[in-house]
Amino acid sequence: YPLLSSSPNSSWDAAYERELQTFQDIGDTGEIWFGEESMVRIIRWLEKHKVPLDSSVLDIGTGNGVLLVELAKSGYMNLTGIDYSPSAIQLSEKIREKEGVSNIKLKVEDFLAPSAELSGFDICIDKGTFDAISLDPSDAVGKRELYVGSLGRVLKPGGFFLITSCNWTKEELLNEFREGFEILEELPTPKFCFGGRIGNSVTALVFQRK
After folding, report:
1. Is residue 190 part of a domain?
2. If you write DSSP's letter for every residue of 19-66 in order, what string do you get?
3. Domain count, the chain
4. 160 assigned to some structural domain
5. Does 12 fall in a domain?
């Protein structure tokens, strides 16, 4: 991650501004924060569960929007990406144009204070945004509560929430999302071995809104 300064927003924005410049210079999409395999894991889950291709999908903290491009290429038609960094949304728009996919809506939004039109989604996906909010030095606990409240507003009852985290264990995430969500399954993620103990560097869970 970019180092989080006292204002995480500004450092994320600076990181995306650099990537935007690089993309304009050489057409490189930049860092995919969670790598290829986390995108494949999400798309496989949607396909395995025969999630209809016209389901409305929200990518929370879309970054460079590459996951949405991959979803579009897999046939998903109703895709929205939000990010509070205008540079990230600009970068996503450029990548969307380059890839020639038209069915992706992109918006600058603060998920902790979402606009009224952000609602009724069948699927919400988060890869690293909840982590970033959790690292905010100013009132991380309050921000996590706001996040859970926002998720309850934008996701339909019965809708699915797929979260990929490298900061939180399964037990911690179950605790964070206990209000209004239930766990459906844990997705397999790469294991690493440290001092003879096997742990996961990444946790990926699917919740359903009650």
Report:
1. yes
2. HHHHHHHH------TTHHHHHHHHHHHHHHTT--TT-EEEEET-TT-H
3. 1
4. yes
5. no
What's the pTM? 0.83
CATH number of the domain encompassing residue 105: 3.40.50.150
- In a domain? residue 109: yes
Nearest to 59 by CA among 122, 146, 139, 134: 122
Q: Which residues contact 75 (CB under 8 A, 6 or more apart)?
A: 53
Under a CB-based contact definition with an 8 Å cutoff, are residues 56 and 78 in contact? yes
Q: Which domain holds residue 71?
A: 34-209
pLDDT in tens, the chain (210 residues): 444 444 445 666 676 677 666 555 554 444 444 567 788 899 999 999 999 999 999 999 999 899 999 999 999 999 999 999 999 999 999 999 999 998 999 999 999 999 999 999 999 999 999 998 988 888 899 999 999 999 999 999 999 999 999 889 999 999 999 999 999 999 988 766 667 776 667 899 999 999
